Structure formats: C-alpha cells, structure tokens
C-alpha cells in the first residue's frame, strides 16, 4: 500500500480499525517518506535473501522490505495491529506476520522454518524500551544473521557503536564489538514520527561476526568482569571490579598489574583484549 507514511492515511487506517497508540509499547509511526526506503536499501536484502522485522507497526518498512526481499517475517507484539497489517500488506505474498514477543519466541527455529537456508538479515525500527535487550539477545544467541540494521534512540546508537576506549563506551558496547562490527548509518529527526518522540533517532548496522575474537579466557567470565568494571563508572576499574565481584582489592590490583593495565584506569578506557587479559589473570585462561 502506497502513502502509508502520510499522516492523513495513518489517521484514516487507524480510525477504521479503532486503534489508539500505546505508550507502554513505545509506538511511534514513521511519517518521513525517505527513511524506510533508505533503511531497506542499507540492510542489503535482495531477491534471493530473507529478512526479519521486529515491530512492523503499520507496515511502512515492511512494504519496502517486501519489494526487495524473497521473504519477510515480521514479528508484532500488539495483536490490535494484526488486522491493520492484513490490510496494508495485502498486495505482498512474500510476507508473514507472527504475533508474539521477540524476546520470548524461538528465533532460531523461526529462521530455520521460514527461510530454508536463505541468507538472512534483520531490519527494524525497534521500540526504544527494548533496544538493548533485543540486540543482545540476537547477538548472544549467535543467530544465523548476516547483519542487524535497526533504528534506535540517537544516544543509544552512540553508546552501542562507540569505539572501545572512548567516553561513550559501556558494557553493552563491549558486547556489541565482540559479536559484531557496528556503525552508525544515518540520523533520523524526532519530527519523522507520529506521535513525535522527545529525542532524535539513528539507524545503526551491526555486521555480525561469523567468528568471535579468541579471548584466551572463558567467555562468561569475560562478560562478568566487563559488567563489574562498568558497574561503578565513577570509580576506578580496580575498585569497581573488586566491589562488584566481591574480590579483595589486593588480588584485583595484582590481576591488573599482570594484565599490564594501569591501576588508575576506568572501565571505558579499556580495550577488549585488556578485559580478556584481566579475566585470564583473575580466573585463568581457557
């Protein structure tokens, strides 16, 4: 269906279906006609590949993906939008809408059942309140995805894609860099949505690593140390790790020294390999 981004069309469709916006689900529908085509082009989907979308809303991005992909699977939590999507996606025979929670569905099974060996990516305008949870689930489960192209709050984009060792870096940044190569593609103003959110957005792309870096230590312990270091951003990393993990400061300080990390370092100043060396010093290698 054309013109889904027009405010008049949105009001007409929603009015006919008796739909009202849900703040708790973070529903903001795009009214900027340039955004969705650009997202669909950026994700790299083509006539031989498949794409998963999370939170299709009215189906504006879904239509653009359906015009480019062999198959689209759109996951929508709000069952009130199902009849709306039946109408707006009626012309496309290559779209399947699944009513469910992306944080609870068996995504690996969905990919296996729906795409039959196709190259698959994910492209979505993510609800702000579940951005980090969704991204981390997609990465941690090592799903067979080539890339993840999502629109998120601008501040979240800066945090997720920040270079390791920079001021914006956080625990989630380290995880994103471990599992993927992230980049910010373009910014989207808050006026591009209805209703307009309070902040601007940005589209980011995570190029999923087919093989994660060899850390030389246990992966779970590595992320345990990373989270501990960032738990007290105002503290030195030594103090934060010691307090968060309940390990004597002297032992943590010795591990920092063994890893070649300055005792005054803060969590955001460290690189992945420094965290790996610290983890190995604290708990031993693999």
From TrEMBL:
Gene3D superfamilies: Ribosomal RNA adenine dimethylase-like, domain 2, Vaccinia Virus protein VP39. The keyword Manganese does not apply. S-adenosyl-L-methionine binds at residues 28, 30, 55, 76, 101, 125. Residues 35-210 form the Ribosomal RNA adenine methylase transferase N-terminal domain. GO terms for cellular component: cytosol. It is found in: Cytoplasm. It catalyses: adenosine(1518)/adenosine(1519) in 16S rRNA + 4 S-adenosyl-L-methionine = N(6)-dimethyladenosine(1518)/N(6)-dimethyladenosine(1519) in 16S rRNA + 4 S-adenosyl-L-homocysteine + 4 H(+). Keywords: Cytoplasm, Methyltransferase, RNA-binding, rRNA processing, S-adenosyl-L-methionine, Transferase. It is an enzyme of class 2 (transferase). InterPro entries: KsgA/Erm, rRNA_Ade_diMease-like_C, rRNA_Ade_Mease_Trfase_CS, rRNA_Ade_methylase_Trfase_N, rRNA_adenine_dimethylase, SAM-dependent_MTases_sf. Its EC number is 2.1.1.182. It comes from the Bacteria. The keyword S-adenosyl-L-methionine applies. One of its GO terms (molecular function) is RNA binding. Specifically dimethylates two adjacent adenosines (A1518 and A1519) in the loop of a conserved hairpin near the 3'-end of 16S rRNA in the 30S particle. May play a critical role in biogenesis of 30S subunits. Belongs to the class I-like SAM-binding methyltransferase superfamily. rRNA adenine N(6)-methyltransferase family. RsmA subfamily. This is Ribosomal RNA small subunit methyltransferase A. It comes from Neobittarella massiliensis. The gene is rsmA.
